[in-house]
Records
---
Amino acid sequence: MHFATIQRILGLLLMVASATMLPPLAIALWLNEPSWADFTITLVAVFVAGALFWYPVRRKRQELRVRDGFVVVALFWAVLALVGAIPLVLADQPHMSFTDAMFESTSGLTTTGATVLTGIDHLPRAIQFYRQELQWLGGMGIIVLAVAVLPMLGIGGMQLYRAETPGPMKDNKLTPRITETAKALWYIYLGLTVCCALAYWFAGMDVFDAIAHSFSTVAIGGFSTHDLSIGFYHSAAIESVAVVFMLLAGVNFSLHFVAWNSMNPLTYFRDSEFKAYITLLGLAALITVGYLYLSDTFELGDAMHHGIFQAVSIGTTTGFTTAAYSHWPGFLPVMLLFTSFIGGCAGSTGGGMKVIRFLLLFKQGMREITRLVHPNAQIPVKVGNKLLPERVIEAVWGFFATYIGCFTIMMLVLLATGLDQVTAFSAVAACLNNLGPGLGEVGYTYGDINAIAKWVLCLAMILGRLEIFTLLVLLSPAFWRR
Amino acid sequence: MKIIILGAGQVGSSVAQNLASEANDITVVDNRPEILRDLQDRIDIRTVTGPASHPEVLTRAGAEDADMILAVTNSDETNMIACQVAYTLFHTPIKVARVRAQEYLAYPKLFTQEALPVDVLISPEQLVTDYIRRLIEQPEALQVLEFAGGRVQLVAVRAVQGGPLVGQELRQLSAHMPGIEARVAAIFRSNSDILPEGDTVIEANDEVFFIAARKNIRAITSELRGLDKPVKRVMIAGGGNIGLRLAESIESRYQVKLIDRNAETARRLSEQLDSAIVLLGDAADEELLLDENIENTDIFCALTNDEEANILSAMLAKRLGARKVMSLINRPSYVDLVQSEAIDIAISPQQATIGSLLTHVRRGDVAAVHSLRRGAAEAIEAVAHGDNKTSKVVGRTVDEIKLPPGTTIGAIVRGEDVIIAHHNTVIESDDHVILFLVDKQHIPAVERLFQVGVTFF
């Protein structure tokens, strides 16, 4: 372990992170809101803290090892959540306890979108923007951003990149150099965001809301500047824009890269993960619409737009709402919650376990069935005509087991703190999958649950965002043994 | 530059490492995923798994917009076909292939655009052999590198107490040796570099790099460390590709003994060699070495495939009294362990090979590149083009050229003449300028210096 190197990189990252206070600060100054002081304090404090970390060890130029990468990423996400909470604690409005601010900031950065706030519409603009910005930065990963802008991270950048990006296969770089890859990802991300903001604006939002919502849409976050989320607008056009961009942001960004480079939209349909992703969401939407209509909850028209919107929003783990889906009849709320376990594609900004892993688990299951029929058959697991190494398949099983294990333990802890079953189940699912709104007591806001539960859910959100292993590996004794 | 390297063997991976640190886009292709994964963990490259000559694999590796393809897999045939594929399907501008078999190399007609479109053939074995041969010819040197077809040499020498120039300022050089011109390009003192000025004093144990015309090298070497007795007896351990080539190229001038432990190989070697004596046995066998007069041997070269065995047999030979021992060592960490203490010269095959590849990677008209001090420093032979207006070097004196820090112009070759650079030497068009860079970070600046402005065309 190279603690000096870890400290140096952490210091650099903090200095980069302090810059994220600039846009809300500018807005506060522009609109003459009192929160400008809070953002200034945070900006200076974080920058100075970063500099203090960095300065004593600025000349330590050791290569970052694999283990150091995990420490840097896990520590940085923890520190970032803390830093993100500072302006929220300092601000007069909303008046938040430290626990609440921490929850809100973690939820933002991990693109979960669970909130403890009510009356968001009346918050100062700068704070509203700040929450959206947190989501946007967390979406592609602020470390990936740092890898793109700080070339001195060098090959260590690869270790960080791998610890932060989601998906079972992380060795496929888009371009030979890691900084170029990180840049390409951010360009795509930025491009999608700009398109999304323009589309919202055309669909009728004002400029501020369009930008703010584009941030949380493309990041698959789910924060909104209104308590009623997208439902506030009652606009089919805005909902359609949201559906399209949630779908796009849930696709593997390398696929966007390849499709853009070859200028061929058919690329998408050659990818097995994409096909599975579209099929699953289509199926979920179909069932939702059908059930809503048949159970007489909505007219056909309303059933269509609420059903499709909610299925996509929850299936991609965004968490926007247009209707109180937690009060929908029968199995729908739970089914939608289960689709969020599948989540977005690997290498997207979505949460959950990722479609590719689900696809592999499914294929493995089918293989066992075929084996029963043909005991001597050689049955390789293929994705898109490509053989997958056993190693990847084993890793997927390990991931699945650990995911369910973490889920169970955290749900039991929540039950122990006194939450009811539906609330505990849905809160952990919504946070671990980076979804956002849950059922029961947490259907609208997480404000009413106890503090211990909030801290557990903070952990769940970071576990979900870093795909569990990056964090769990730090807890294993072997990791710290020399 | 976008470069595809086929084959992640010793040459492939060390070249990748060397080039990736210079902001090139490197993609390495191999059919062994484990090796690629290791490589990708260590250096910032992209990797593609698959048979290197298949068009589909090359497409995945980005051959469509690659600037250079470097085929260094184990198989000559794969390398040649890969170049053919790159030429026909992707029009890759520079195609370099490693071809080892003499059977192919003997027919240069094979490697033309119509047949096998390979632009540059490299043979690491031949490069390493030449490198060792030069060291045997100049036994005082640590490293001997050639420029301008061998007219100019760059030589690294360790200064020894008692050498006439040791303890003197550099400007005494010309006073000491009237009529002989040389330029000290760099001095390395306990691993830090010193930019040589007129008043720099050479100390014992300094590693001095100097540039001079080939015929003057020995005279200057003698100033720094006194002259060793000329080499007569050479013993080579290992009759592989390099051992055999070396023995063949020097057996007419030196008394050569070649040791190999495989009876079959030894018999074949004895048939191929004329005057060299082939010995069957283990190079680390003390009795054998003593029987063959190791104490009177001038140079002992351990050149087997097994680097650990090389190190051990060289150390043993040294202890038994061989005057100078060299060993072929692939791993850089081993070189650090044994260089200059247990073993006089560690020969790194990668180092000897990389220069000939860098020649094609460097922008501008570059005639030769040599990588020094394990890739940290570099010597470049660049050709100046253009005139006073279009070029940043032509028509200017050495003093007027804005060289990046740590860079010296050592010599200029004009036609057949070798001119040692002085501060008032004027550079003309088509001069070959030999530069020495202590830190290869500044290479882009040197490249820009020698690029001709657009008005030239």
Note: The interface with chain A takes residues 2, 20, 23, 25-27, 33, 37, 40-47, 62 of chain B (CB under 8 Å).
---
Amino acid sequence: MTLILSRWQFGITTVFHFIFVPLTIGLALLLAIMQTAAYRARDDEAKRATWEGMAVFWRRLFLINFAIGVVTGIVQEFQFGMNWSMYSRYVGSVFGAPLAVEALLAFFLESTFLGIWIFGRGKVSDRVHLASIWLVSIGTMLSAYFILAANAWMQHPVGYKIEGDRAIMTNFWAVMSNSTLISSFLHVFTAALVTAAMLVLGISAWHLKRSQKAGTTAHPVFSTSAKLALIVGSIAIVATMFFGDNQARLMETQQPMKMAAAEAQYNTQNGASFSLLTIGNLSGDPIFQIRIPHALSVLSDNSWDGPVQGINQVQAKETATYGKGSYIPVLWVTYWTFRIMVGCGIVMLVGLVWGLWLMYRRKVDTSKWFLRLAVPALLLPFLANATGWIFTEVGRQPWVVYGLLRTAKGVSPIGTGYVVTTLIGFTAIYSILALIDFGLMARYAKLPAEGVDEHGQPKPTDGSGADEDADRADDADDRVPALIY
Amino acid sequence: MITIATAAPAYTGLEIFWFLIIAVLWVGYFVLEGFDFGVGMLLPVIGKSDLDRRVMINTIGPVWDGNEVWLLVAGGATFAAFPNWYATLFSGFYLPLFLILAALIFRGVAFEYRSKREMPKWHLAWDHAIFWGSLVPSLLWGVAFANILRGTPIGPHQTYLGSFFNLLNVYSLLGGLTTLLLFALHGSIFLSLKTTDDIKERAEGTAKVLAPAATVALVAFLAWTYVNARNIHDVGIVPPFVPILAVVAVAAVAWLMREKMAGWAFIANAVAMVGLIATIFLNLYPRVMVSSISPAFNLTIGNTSSAPYTLKVMTIVALIFTPLVLVYQSWSYWVFRARVRRPAIGAVLPVAEPSGAADPSGTSVPAADPADPAAAPTGDGGSR
């Protein structure tokens, strides 16, 4: 019981944490770009005001999101020891190092310069203020790199030896340049950019749609935001897919069972087809399937007729290596999460290309259906992020460290009652936080842009006698970001 | 100078070095997060109005998050350098750590979300979150350290065999009270340095009340620790000037506050915390957790440590990057050295009144005193 409850707790807290993290990583970089553009346009008042207005608008959402990412991150670092103490003993020498380095290099950088960025305007020069958001952005990337180094080692252990009953690090550089790490970092980082771009695009689309309905000019803040999001998002989604494909290739050699489980493919095939969807069960003889011929071979082996290993063959091989037991993860989870992730990616790619084409024809601001669909589409990257992680973690089971330590052997020897308490506790706390956070995000996403009017002219932020929007009262607060806390 | 239990195994220099590093990280955490916990706990005491509480929160606004990273680094360093210590401590002290995490979660978002709605009830709810979120960890860190030193039921295979209630005893609760009072005192001195007018006066008054209380608690806790060290652990406490220094430092706080030397009082209180952590770690050494079942089951730097290679790599990383971190974190304190003034806040912030839709722009102009340079840069919303 302790095992299954601990797994649920880790799953819930991690998926929740990862709703916010990619947005933080992506938005930090977008904000750095916006603020840089504003800084460089300081001789062109209209342009400067627009970029400045963008930075002011998106920064509110960034900060609401950042706070929750930070506090849920503390739980992550503590949980290994609390619920997975046997795992911690086994891997500490290898796994603990990137965690400690992450805190020292990334967390200090992020938190200190975020403080400077929020409160420091007027206390430091504009140049230092601009540098501070870049340092925050670099901090988020470093953080991703080090935590993924730890995770990549669980997927594909390198640079270690087994001594007694634990793994000992023998080569730090091997751990920090793990092929799995490079590939997953690039996939996760570009996916984070897609996440931020889709959010910026969706919210901008909502505002553009509103000015369409009201018959007013598209506000430059949202018009420019949408364009920036389209450019960054399109590049990032292509990169995400490219690196995802790269990961699949590594997976085929490093974790063949996961690749087979992604497809629920029972037997090794040459020129394997990609199953688009399956109705019935995943036991090997489905009732109805749609398959794309050769696609799986192309994806995982980069060749038309390349072999893709099947579940039965990998199971037999792993039994021979590791002894009796099942080495098959929960197939319906791996099969469907993989499909949802890839599906969301494809839909976003199509949508972003559509947007680029509209942008080329200068029709983004006036388009009808694109703007309407972009709003709900902002949920897609979040769904893809969650299913991607669920796939990669469930797909590794029954291992916690692939080929070295089974998940069941990593759990803490603690009473079930304790885990029940914290599972309920964390779930309750996170649910409350989610409600508050989503409420605030929605509220601040709907606020009008400030500091610049519809014609790109700077205007004082005191908007007296402006529209009687219900959210207007909050503006008072936003004029003093120094008082953001 | 240091009395080690007989037949102690030899420890490598790296293990001792990392034991020292972890002690230093906890010192950093207590000295820095100590004052922001203190400010949080004193919100209802010193903050008479919503605006007062906002001023108080703003004194720690730019720095609390960086202060908390000291805890994360301490946790990460323990994991990497002494995995078995990390594993036993975190799984053994399971529920207290959950309470600490819950507190830190609500407190962390409270700083960010409090200002997001202009409703008195909303502000008040987050003020509660900050208060409890600061108080609970302040108490529980003391409880945890007292238990680590006092001894908990750790059996063979470094497994914690006790329950939650083994962690509640008079000695550990006294330890908790000591850290709570020290942090509250630290916060009140910090506020007296970072605020003006009546808030500053109330902070000074609070510090004068808290200083004797913290002194009594620290003396009692260290005396008890001294007796335990002699009678139970049979190791002695070394060197004796460390706890004495802690007591002298905290006793000096009351006098320094009376003499209007708040800066020195802050330093004295920090010295007291250094002395407290140093006493605990010196008393522990070479152990990292004491077993109340048998000394044979004690966790030591030897039987919990990571591989020498990991320690070596970590040492290099720490030696390169710690100075850099110290430089920019100190610089950020320098940037925010100015006192937080209520007029400056009032100048740009409408006081939230439950009744009437006050025109925000109305209150802003007259209060902006051109003679007060601190007032001008505070609001950076639009024009620069």
Note: Chain A touches chain B through 95 residues (CB under 8 Å).
